[in-house]
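Morning F.,

Quick status update on the modeling queue. The single chain you submitted on Monday has been processed. Sequence for confirmation:
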Amino acid sequence: MKIKLAVFDLDGTVVNTLPDIAHVNNSILKSYGFKEHDLTSYRNFVGWGLRRTLEMSLPEGVPQKLSEEIYNRLSTEYNSSSVVYSEVYRGINDILGFLNNKNIRTIIYTNKPQRPAEIIIEHFFKNNFFSDILGSGGIYPDKPDPSALVAYMNKTGVKTSEVIFVGDSEIDLNTAVNSGVHFLCAGWGFRSPESLKQAGADNIFTLPEELYRWLLKNIE
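Structure tokens below.
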């Protein structure tokens, strides 16, 4: 395969951000007297963006005004606490280094708000690998709407056949399908390989090392 652009989801694909998301969200829920949730629950709460994570963790019937107040607080506190417990998945740096050596443009495409995404990438990678970060909150709708990625491909002159998209959720799978690019499934992330297979994913890799070996064999 001749690839010019490698697109990576962030949460559950490049970095295990779940502990920080759960910690901050639970701290805020507790302060309002709401039920906290375990990490297993948060695996199903994430992927659609921070606001949706909060909505899914709140009980039914919370007034819109209160929900907005809690979300604003969550956004502020997560910005300052997004890299306390998070970790880069083992083997990701090998993948990114390989793509870099092949001169393949590599970007982040996430439903996480833009600034927290930038904070995480700057902290763990010093922006050594990623050319751009496409985060939530801009002029385009969130994934699985592919508008942000399609606009980026048009801007950089990359064809759909020259793009791989690595993600860990049905949201990423649907985004890849909607944009017409080749999807590689990060089965090590927040969704189980079984649920991803049921969603229609193939090329499911249970460890980053498996994806690395696949890239070595298939990327020119």
